[in-house]
Amino acid sequence: MPETDPRPLTGEPVSLDLLNTRWMHDGVRQDLLTGTEGLRIWLASNGLDRRFPADAAALEHVLLAREALTSAVTTPGDAAGIERVDAVLAHGRIRATLTAEGPGEETEFEDPSWGAAWTAAHDYLNLLRTAPDRIRGCAHEACILHFFDTSRNGTRRWCSMAACGNRAKASRHYAKTREP
User: Fold this and answer.
1) Least confident span in 37-51, 54-68, 81-95, 157-171
2) Following DSSP, what letter does each residue of 85-144 receive, concatenated?
3) What does pLDDT average to over the chain?
4) Which phi and psi (to 5°) does residue 39 adopt?
5) What pLDDT was estimated at residue 88?
6) I want to staple 159 with a disulfide (CB 3.0 to 4.6 A). Which of 4, 76, 101, 138 is the partner?
7) By C-alpha distance, which of 162, 140, 159, 161 is closest to 148?
8) What is the rounded average pLDDT of the residues 42-69?
């Protein structure tokens, strides 16, 4: 049984959730994906643990996907980031199907260890199709987390209002009270 997920922000779309496997805690960068146990936790958090393996090969591929997505998200339109995401996507495909229930789709991988990495990269494409301007990094200077802004007016700035948003408000308040 995997441990509980230690990350401060979970539940984002799988592509951004993969980026959020790195976070800051008391000024120190943390990384969930330092081994296969962390990969198991991440897969379980995203409902992927029954579909994809949590072995060393899968970890290597997920780490490649994370670096590709980091590049693509932090520098949109950058040719190197685009190439890196595309290289991950080259390891899987979607096959159209017809079932008794009607039309469907199945993902296929030559090597199943690419499944989770490909799924995260494919999810990023879906976010780009939906609302690329709502893929955001937290506005707090010390935070490295990402989120997909689902607020009605699209003005979310913080990964969590309770954490980063509150810290920013407290900092502003403290600065105001210190002014002569």
Assistant:
1) 157-171
2) HHHHHTT-EEEEEEETTEEEEEEE-SSGGGHHHHHHHHHHHHHHHH-GGGEEE-SSTT--
3) 92
4) -65, -40
5) 98
6) 138
7) 159
8) 98
